[in-house]
Amino acid sequence: MKMPLDDSKLIYMQIADSIEDEVISGALNEGEQVYSTNQFAKLYGINPATAAKGINLLVEEGILFKKRGIGMFVAEGAKDRIVDKRKRIFVEEYITKLIHEARKLNITKEELLDIIRSYEGGDK
Asked: Is residue 16 domain-shared with residue 69, that is, in the same domain?
């Protein structure tokens, strides 16, 4: 489950993202236990409080839940919540900018759709 950490994003956010990625990919399923904060801290060589911040973020979002004295587990419906959240972020961060830039360049909707279609299936 170890992914490389980088300086592009706060470490606790990278921890949360890596857990989300595991849920989306099916490597972590609903009801399965995730690493503890101490396991994350040891794995990445970070402060346990930093790992806890990432895990707690996912608890607040309903992605994980705590079983007292046992650990953190993937919540029911977590995958759907993550996908919905990431779709919203995708639209906000990419699609909105794409449309604004296309308008600046006088690219029509049809031209833009043709461009997107040309990239389907990994052709380019």
From this structure: yes
